[in-house]
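Q: What changes when magnesium ion is included in the input?
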Amino acid sequence: MAVKTLIQGIHDGMREALRQDLRVVVLGEDVGKNGGVFRATEGLWQEFGEERVMDTPLAEAGIVGAAIGMAVNGLRPIAEIQFMGFIYPAFEQIVTHAARLRTRTQGQHPASLVIRAPYGGGIRAPELHSDSTESLFVHIPGLKVVVPSTPADAKGLLLAAVKDPDPVIYLEPMQIYRSVKGEVPDGWHEVPLGKARVLREGEDVTLITWGAMVPLAEKCAQAWAGRGISCEVIDVRSLYPLDEETIIASVKKTGRVVIVHEAPKTAGLGAELTALINEQAFLWLEAPITRVTGFDVPVPMFALENAFRPDQERVDRAISYVTSF
Amino acid sequence: MAVKTLIQGIHDGMREALRQDLRVVVLGEDVGKNGGVFRATEGLWQEFGEERVMDTPLAEAGIVGAAIGMAVNGLRPIAEIQFMGFIYPAFEQIVTHAARLRTRTQGQHPASLVIRAPYGGGIRAPELHSDSTESLFVHIPGLKVVVPSTPADAKGLLLAAVKDPDPVIYLEPMQIYRSVKGEVPDGWHEVPLGKARVLREGEDVTLITWGAMVPLAEKCAQAWAGRGISCEVIDVRSLYPLDEETIIASVKKTGRVVIVHEAPKTAGLGAELTALINEQAFLWLEAPITRVTGFDVPVPMFALENAFRPDQERVDRAISYVTSF
Amino acid sequence: MLQQTRHDMVQYLRPNGWLTDEGKKVWGGLSREQKLDLYRWMVKVRLFDRRAVILQRQGRIGTYAPLEGQEAAQVGSALALGREDWIFPSYREHGVSMIAGMPLAHILLYWMGRVEGNTAPEGVRVLPPYVPIATQMPQAMGAAWASKLKRESSLAIAYFGDGATSEGDFHEACNFAGVFQLPVLFFCQNNQYAISVPFSRQSATSTVAEKGQAYGIPSVRVDGNDVLAVYHVTAEAAERARNGGGATLIEAVTYRQGSHTTADDATRYRDPEEVRIWVEERDPVDRCRRLLEREGLLSEEYIASWEECCKKEIQEAVDAAERAKAPPPTHLFNHVFETLPPSLLRQREELVRKEGGPDGSENPDPRHP
Amino acid sequence: MLQQTRHDMVQYLRPNGWLTDEGKKVWGGLSREQKLDLYRWMVKVRLFDRRAVILQRQGRIGTYAPLEGQEAAQVGSALALGREDWIFPSYREHGVSMIAGMPLAHILLYWMGRVEGNTAPEGVRVLPPYVPIATQMPQAMGAAWASKLKRESSLAIAYFGDGATSEGDFHEACNFAGVFQLPVLFFCQNNQYAISVPFSRQSATSTVAEKGQAYGIPSVRVDGNDVLAVYHVTAEAAERARNGGGATLIEAVTYRQGSHTTADDATRYRDPEEVRIWVEERDPVDRCRRLLEREGLLSEEYIASWEECCKKEIQEAVDAAERAKAPPPTHLFNHVFETLPPSLLRQREELVRKEGGPDGSENPDPRHP
Ligand SMILES: Cc1ncc(C[n+]2csc(CCOP(=O)(O)OP(=O)(O)O)c2C)c(N)n1
Ligand SMILES: Cc1ncc(C[n+]2csc(CCOP(=O)(O)OP(=O)(O)O)c2C)c(N)n1
Ligand SMILES: [Mg+2]
Ligand SMILES: [Mg+2]
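A: The predicted holo structure follows.
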């Protein structure tokens, strides 16, 4: 196993999928000759040719609509949306069609496709490039939503998503595209959808997070370990379906929960996690479930993105709060 | 004050706005000569002419985009989207632009507009006409979201929305368009955004709901009153901003909460309400906050819509659960 | 041969039932059965449609979208397709669907609010009706793209209305189809109205066909009430698509004789004289009947017996649809995902407990309603 | 007079710096100052652009979208507009914005990730850069619609690229503009690429201009590196719009000489020879300089002193932008709503407590950075 970056894990996943499954095609803006604006598809056009890796016109509804039609007609498309902030023109194709086609056709056309999009802030990108609107997709029945935070998961979730017969929104935390490194298994490697990753076990507080917030949570957990408070850190990884078992078991152990996400607070996924825990572990709770999230303001331009995004201080404050409640 | 239906309240609100504020225009598909597919704009084209009430081509992004541009250039548009299920083509214009233009222009262009859309099920409408995706909009910072459930609120919230300098998504529960009747004040009548309506006071359980679920909650509350359990029923009415004060005060009184909404459960607005209450009234809770919602399945065609939507039996079960916890 | 782009309207069969010179040639190339089929299908479609309107009035089905007046556009085009072609219809294409092999009972079930109505029999490549306007177009384009990538000869066809041409999805689909030379037919039934909005307020061009120029795809304008011309231009476009010639935009000029749906009242926005002209002078079924009668292919008895035969078939479909066992409430969960995640299993349980009945396993086979 | 639709490319000033016959007439109608302005603005825009690229390399601003090569398209069109017109730019229209009155310092602030950079001085009707492609077009159309409804003579102009023509928003905006005859100019800088995708893969038509036909709006194709022609066709289209003649689609054929942004590497996807031709043989600034020199309007000293003057102004803008006091973190909350609801007040409090500093009230006036 070689040590790779997260984006290499994504790249490897696509390459493996293209190699092993002839139904797989990759399509999107600049994914061909240019290898993607983040180089996620680097070299794939050269290796697999322009009938497997396809530059499209600049039209997201067209891209996702085409991918749905391809899936209906037997292909397994991986569609790239260049940034999550540009997924909204395709929103109707995703929520009305990709999500519902299996139900609407009573299983005949499951819309087996993957939609990849880089998301979140932290790279001082230009305006409107840093949205984290994962909860919108989690709310839509019929979609699965995953977010890797390690290179191995990046590959494993991508291949699981490709194999999965249902439509999967695959979100890539671009802040850690290159900063997170780790071993990535060779060949076909799957990480099952619907399973969270407990990256650190603990007894006192459950820290629940995903994507680019995982390293932050880990750092906080480490710091608190020094102060005698042990945090269990859960990388949710599969935002839908949620691994309720792992989450609830942890909460029942610790009784105290801090949820960290980058998206704005109101109606973000932290709300659903709170509701879930409230429903399934009410009697175990020893403090209010506490959310540390982006503020309820439009994702700012990068000069203020650090003020907007959760940071160690805010997470620390939440941990203090729940442990001293 | 005359007794009117909910849709008449909406109609009256638009008429009043068109009369009193020359900046107001109404635009959308079939809103002119035809008076809207539900007749919400009946007679307005005839009364105010085709420069105030405008039939547009069939293009939702065009409609909302045009409305934003009109707002920038000094008008106060009320845009109609024919059904909430068809709002998604305009999603980008709404979430990227209407919601953020005030911030992006540092207050220079607040995108003062209202987007109306009938929503929800219960009228045996054709496929894909019955979505309730209000939580998607609540999650987007910069938008306000309201839902009237009485004729007076219909008018009052509409006029408040028109006057409000920020973009307002105004959702109309079409199931009760004509079934709910009540007195509607004449002239300019506003119901402030951000205030819930307590339609029934009670001591034992707080029932929180909005839109077409209000009559259901009321019915359940009545039934339980006979059994010696008194429910406080809150019509949230303003989904963003939420009237936290009213909600939290009620929960602190009752300690038990049932939330009823038609949208699917996962990441629906019930999750946010749960999280909010958990944060602000944790120590007052005597039972898990319980959600009665649409199931996490694509909104079904009408033969199964009753199975999908909350009904008295499911609400009753929830009330039993929280009162006997 | 079809010219690259023809914006003068192709017409082979005049409203008075006489063939044009070009029409005679095309007509001469059809077999007797083909000729009769054009008519027979139109009659069946119309009788079905009328029956459906009545069923709606009787409260036996929900809101329904009638097609009367558009039979030639639907029958002519659908008969020009092959079994392997992918059809992406809107909500008004009952005629197309039945020709492609959707059982009439399924079509009725759909309008009864029953999702099982969307299930296509084995080998029938008809997608469910697309209600959100124009959204089927990018998908048809994608299906065609897959055919091309797989080097299969199947094409895809998207049916849509004049109003749909205003949506962004129309544009994006046409543009991709032009760029990638995809085997897709964009078949527009320009019935002059999008609910109440006339085409003149939908578009500043006077035709849909001329919009094809923006995408470098050939387009053709055809009399949509002339079943022969529709059949022929669709067949030509299909052949070109199969031969690598790419997409075609077809504008079939027609008219919806009734209301937009049974919930609409077209008298609010249409001039009765306009309606009268289309109904009395340009009806697609009458026109074809006159031709066949003149050619001696159709007698009054034949017509009567065919109508009888259709009515019987329709009655059987009504019976089948009304008899079709309603799936239990738990059917809601049957096709959300291939495998239900735990949270959905729990929600399903909640419904089972509430229903107090069986666990939904006795879900009737939706293919045989 | 501008013909209804001209798809042969309008060119008045040849790449070699000589005027065409028609060009001579147009040129003759300009005052000395107007002539010099065309050149002076192009130089200022270019110098600004080059400086911005350097600032990015030095880490003093973030990712930046250079416009070098597109100066004539931007300057020519922007000079044809009036102060009352509404401008909806994309992220590459620094030249347009500065002509319309956006302070250079604001433009730099924007690329420093500072939202205050979007604030327009009183009376300057420039919207912030539109990053999501083509989304500005329906809004420009709406602003124009409002002008028309209010019977004002202001028009709206949307700037966008060749790639933008593929988006649904392009289509919907053009269609409304055609239907309602709105005073809006759709100004496309066809710089041949959407990041790495050449126009030939973006569209099956060889020009953007011919797409105007689908909307019944006149369109014109102009040499986008010919500042005189761009100025003239824009002025004509503007005049027509103001006189009730409706929208125009203008395709300015140009080339982005550098990379898409400073984060892009255009050598990955463009032929160096192609780049060389555009840079060496078709440059918009050189071309104009040659003409002015030949006409004796420009001397080497004048050029040098003007460049000096621009550099000084740019340096002052850099200084101003870099000196501009950064708003405190609480600035996040300043313009979300006119009045903050309680939950946002609470969130703001959280940030204030965390910062431990002032409550954000000393937010510097963003109009004077
Ligand atoms: C995206 C979307 N917007 C609005 C509607 C509501 N609606 C249903 S049919 C219709 C008119 C469609 O007109 P046209 O495309 O001409 O087709 P026709 O009904 O005439 O066959 C409208 C506005 C919809 N179904 N989808
Ligand atoms: C809706 C949307 N999709 C994708 C992008 C990413 N993106 C930024 S610029 C660009 C290319 C734009 O090309 P063009 O319209 O020709 O303008 P140019 O950059 O050449 O000026 C792309 C794909 C975006 N900003 N918005
Ligand atoms: Mg129509
Ligand atoms: Mg370009």
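Observations recorded in class: The mean pLDDT of chain C is 94.
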